């Protein structure tokens, strides 16, 4: 068969598909939560599903750590918990793996915090 090619951490649109143990699906008419790592800048941008997200990151090998993450402040009652959980997951991230089209963020103990899927490479 065709070998699986791992997506790149940078220059990839990473759509959030799982937060902790819970699947994440964007509702009708809602923005999907996603991340984009900007190459050479150490910056990350994206969406929580409601608000825009921006911040910094440091990556070395399989280690990954986010700096302060800021979001815009639009009111989104339906997505407030997801937004808070995503920001907390980014804060707790200490490592990552990319396997095929999936990006997984892991905590200090190796626990899966979030899973993303590359929607285009």
Estimated structural class: mainly beta
Percentage of helical residues? Answer: 10-25%
Order of helices and strands: EEEEEEHEEE
Number of strands: 9
Rg, Å, rounded: 14 Å
Mean of residue pLDDT values: 88
Taking the sheet with the most strands, its summary is:
9 strands, antiparallel
Hey, roughly how much beta strand do the residues contain?
Answer: over 45%
Question: Terminal Cα separation, in Å?
Answer: 20 Å
Oligomer: single chain
Count of DSSP H/I helices: 1
Q: Assign an overall shape.
A: globular
Unreliable runs, pLDDT <50, ≥5 residues?
none
Topology:
Elements (H helix, E strand, L loop, with lengths): L12 E7 L2 E2 L10 E5 L4 E5 L4 E9 L2 E9 L8 H13 L2 E5 L2 E5 L5 E9 L1
Antiparallel strand pairs: 1-2, 1-3, 1-9, 3-4, 4-5, 5-6, 7-8, 8-9
Written description of the protein model:
There is one protein chain. This protein has one helix spanning 80-92; strands at 13-19, 22-23, 34-38, 43-47, 52-60, 63-71, 95-99, 102-106, 112-120. The protein has one helix and nine strands, in the order ββββββαβββ. Strands 1, 2, 3, 4, 5, 6, 7, 8 and 9 form a nine-stranded antiparallel sheet that branches. The model has no long low-confidence stretch (mean pLDDT 88). The relative contact order is 0.24. With 121 residues, it is mostly beta strands.
